[in-house]
Amino acid sequence: MTREIIDTPDAPGSARSGSPVYSQAVKAAGLVFVAGQGPFDPATGAVLGDTIQEQTRQALTNVQAILRAAGSGIDRVVSATFILRNPEDFAGMNEEWRRWFPTDPPARQGAKLPLEIPGLRISIAVVAEA
Fold it and tell me: How many structural domains compose the chain?
């Protein structure tokens, strides 16, 4: 199986960080596997957004940039995993989610965020068709 590591400066958490422990995405078997993306500014690494809607939007913007770099797109997402810090953010996350996936949304699962990163409320990982 051929694997291609995806790396773009348009999203955070890349191999350019000097000592990477993960790839932004791996393209293999006709799919793109995008690592969990938080609401981080690609240039500064700062958390962007105070509300769960803003943070969901930024996390999905980062996912979209990585998918674009892989030759895919947000419309090709087949599965997603979201991780919330606060379960009470679920409704607000869904509000923004519907804007990105208005019809035929991907399969999805959720979990509670096991990390305490100041200001971070959400992380989103996806699998998309290449």
Answer: 1
